[in-house]
Amino acid sequence: MRAATHDIPTTARRGFTLTELLIVIGLIVLVIALAVPAFKAMSGGRSIDAAQNQLAAVLGAARAEAIGLQKVRGVFFFLDPATERVNALLVQESDYRPLLADKPPVDPDYYLDAVPDRDPIALPVGVGLQGIDNAEFNGSNRRDDGYIGYNPGPLPGGTRCGGVILFDGFGRVINKFVGFHLGGLDVLTGGKQVRPTRLGEVFGYQPMDTPPKHFVPQQVVGGGTSPMSKMPPLSLFGFVLYDAEPFRAQGFTDNDPQFDNTAGSYAAKEMEEEKWLDKNGVPVLINRYNGTLVRGE
Fold first, then answer.
1. Structurally, how many domains does the chain consist of?
2. Residue 81 placed within a domain
3. Are the beta carbons of 239 and 203 closer than 8 angstroms?
4. What CA–CA distances, in Å, run from 146 to 52, 166, 252?
């Protein structure tokens, strides 16, 4: 006798329609679009925190050396033209003093050179930094730059020159006029040939070049009417950190009218830029006596 067989019913499987697929893809794109700015904001904040930690370390090293050696030490900020990243470099007071024929219009308090065997520290990609300057005010309005960015150095298209923070032999932050020692006499030629100093090389001179012996920028403060005009740059007492991408998206640059003899005034665009930094940047001041960093909001 043949066994009875029973048909097992099967359920047909239906695939996704094109409309459903498009809806799912649209939701995924929407989630990514919402997540990317938030991620960038979080990572930007972490980058600024990382930059502050880097600067705390390099400033601490400069201050410790100043106290230990009883000599002026500091940190020089510059913009690398190859990477557009902000760099911090340990600098020291140079023994160089120009001859009378070589003197700039106003001699700075210190000519600076790089500390030997120290490499520049590059801040994280996308982090901007400008120095906090002792600006002149007319009431509550600035008459000149409150933040010092990066301006042309001695070589066209070369390293752009930023501000300097200095410590004296007691470890105190000092506010002094500064210049840069670029070229020293070469002992191998019996002192007849000028060769780049370590700082001269940072500015872009090659080891066999014959650079000028010094570079001293001149300020144009208060529209050129201030006693500070034509003076060398002053060392700073703090800096502001910010996200460089939205800064540049506003059409702002790191150039300062204060170091542009053709600008002649505190330009409207610079006022707008500095208001943006006031609102969006993270100011960091340095305690004059103990060197600790004090972060504002």
1. 1
2. yes
3. no
4. 20, 18, 15
